[in-house]
Design brief:
Shape: elongated
Distance between the termini: 57 Å
Order of helices and strands: HHEEEEEHEEHHE
Structural class: alpha+beta
Oligomer: single chain
Largest sheet: 6 strands, antiparallel
Helix content: 40-55%
Length: about 170
């Protein structure tokens, strides 16, 4: 009697995953619009990606405003540039890939921060638990668990503050 219920639950979970995966396809099919925040890869012009907001787009060129100031942990990430340096004109024929911002995300930054913080916290608390005279591995190991916990929480909080951006592939306008 339990098997059909588990199978029904598995089917419902898989159909939910498929429907949520299908919900992302419209973003990848449509092209970017004016005002959208994008990441553009044009290797003929520059090896790294242009990141900015589309100011205008026509049949041959796209104009990006790359001078948008963002806050990370309450601090500005860069200077405000003069208009002639912050506006970039890119020929559509040079664009190989384009991605549209899907909004702010903190998931990977929180996980990465928690892992890094746990390692650093475990090391520091382990070293701090060792006495000056006759230290051994047991003294180090006694301090590690508390350091892992404290470091993971601290790293996760910092990772959340830093955050990141989720990028969704889009059709290159031609």
């Amino acid at each position: 009697m339990r098997t059909p219920n588990l199978m029904a639950l598995a089917f419902a979970a898989s159909s939910t995953c498929l429907s949520s995966a299908g919900a992302q396809n419209p973003d990848s099919v449509r092209g970017p619009e004016v005002g959208a925040r994008v990441r553009v890869f044009a290797p003929e012009l520059r090896t790294d990606r242009y990141v900015g907001r589309i100011k205008s787009i026509d049949a041959s060129v796209m104009v990006l405003d790359t001078g948008e100031v963002r806050n990370v942990l309450g601090m500005d990430t860069g200077p405000v540039l003069v208009d002639q340096f912050r506006r970039v004109t890119i020929r559509l024929s040079t664009i190989e890939a384009i991605e549209v911002s899907g909004g702010r995300t903190a998931r990977t930054a929180v996980v990465r921060g928690a892992l890094f913080g746990a390692l650093v916290g475990g090391l520091l608390f382990g070293l701090g638990a060792m006495p000056e005279i006759n230290p051994d591995a047991n003294d180090f190991i006694r301090g590690v668990p508390l350091g892992l916990a404290v470091g993971a929480v601290g790293g996760a909080v910092i990772g959340f503050g830093i955050g990141g951006e989720r990028w969704v592939p889009a059709r290159v306008p031609r």
